[in-house]
Specification:
Elements: H1 3-14, H2 19-44, H3 47-50, E1 52-53, H4 60-68, H5 73-108, H6 125-152, E2 160-163, E3 172-175, H7 179-233, H8 236-239, H9 241-244, H10 246-249, H11 256-259, H12 273-276, H13 283-305, H14 307-311
Antiparallel strand pairs: 1-3, 2-3
Length: 312
């Protein structure tokens, strides 16, 4: 495997990562890839050749080796490094998609503003892609640790294993080559994997808390601007004497000039006696006055025609 190409690919993720992401990348290269390339491959080497059994039965050693080592540590770690790097490539591809979209938009609209202020900034869909990649890396790390623990019984490598499967004639003792050295490297790689899991969890918490804080600050700014608007509406300019003074509650707005001209709105108001003289008589008052005058004239005529009746 060409680890230089692998390193070049992952280095592109470094400029889009947070501080925790950069530390994770350093741990992967220094404590995992470098240890894997420099030391681990040489320690394991040809494992089956160093696996010795106290029998000459053909095929017995191969069967026992396959039973105790269904997959080699070194190949399992190579798969683990490849799989945990794939989610990081999702971020690189998403940024490449943004760059291509920005380039096409600029060709079609050369005078308009950019679609993205910074294509590598973790906002919108890129933030979700980055968060999903962290969850994926954490899940892959945990899955490979579980596989290693399940296959090799708590990451422990004994010096002696006993095998009784066919074609072995009886219970056979088999010896593992370099058991202590392999145990040390196994614990080291498991510890580095656990450290990467912790860094991924810290980065997830950091991203989510930062997003929550940004939303909280946005809500506070919106609430503060709303409060400022309310203060503007209820400030001195709107509640001062100029708006609640005598000009709006004085006699000019409640006098007869405003109440007498609205007969349908001020019918319940009492009209002063001094104002009645200025008004024309209504139909009822005119009827009463004319009826009183006619009855008085009639009574005078009767008295003039019959003076005796008036005297009696």
């Amino acid at each position: 495997m060409d680890w230089k190409t692998f390193q070049a690919l992952l280095s592109g993720v470094n400029k889009y990562s947070t501080a925790f992401g950069r530390v994770w990348l350093s741990v992967v290269f220094v404590f995992r890839v470098m240890v894997y390339v420099v030391a681990a491959e040489r320690v394991w080497g040809d494992e089956q050749k160093d696996f010795d059994c106290n029998t000459k039965q053909p095929g017995c050693a191969n069967v026992c080796y396959d039973h105790f080592f269904p997959i080699s540590h070194i190949r399992l770690w190579a798969l683990q490094l490849i799989f945990i790097s794939c989610p990081s490539f999702m971020v690189v591809m998403h940024v490449a998609y943004r760059d291509d979209r920005e380039r096409k938009f600029k060709i079609k609209n050369p005078d308009s503003v950019k679609l993205y202020a910074n294509t590598g900034k973790k906002h919108g869909g890129l933030w979700w892609t980055y968060l999903v990649s962290l969850f994926a890396k954490t899940g892959i790390e945990v899955a490979f640790l579980y596989i290693l623990h399940h296959i090799y019984d708590s990451f422990y490598l004994p010096r002696l294993v006993k095998c009784s499967g066919a074609p072995c004639p009886n219970l056979v003792d088999c010896y593992i080559g370099h058991p202590t050295e392999k145990k040390v490297f196994t614990y080291f790689m498991v510890g580095a994997s656990g450290l990467c899991i912790v860094l991924n969890i810290c980065e997830i918490i950091y991203l989510i808390s930062k997003r929550v804080a940004r939303i909280g600050n946005k809500f506070k700014r919106r609430h503060r601007s709303t409060a400022v608007r309310q203060e503007d509406y209820t400030s001195k300019d709107y509640t001062s004497k100029d708006y609640t003074s005598k000009d709006y509650t004085s006699k000019d707005y409640t006098s007869k000039d405003y109440t007498s001209k609205e007969p349908f709105n001020n019918g319940h108001l009492a009209v002063p006696s001094r104002d009645r003289k200025d008004r024309p008589p209504s139909f009822k008052s005119a009827f009463k006055s004319s009826h009183g005058i006619s009855s008085l004239i009639m009574e005078q005529k009767i008295r003039a025609s019959a003076p005796n009746l008036s005297s009696s």
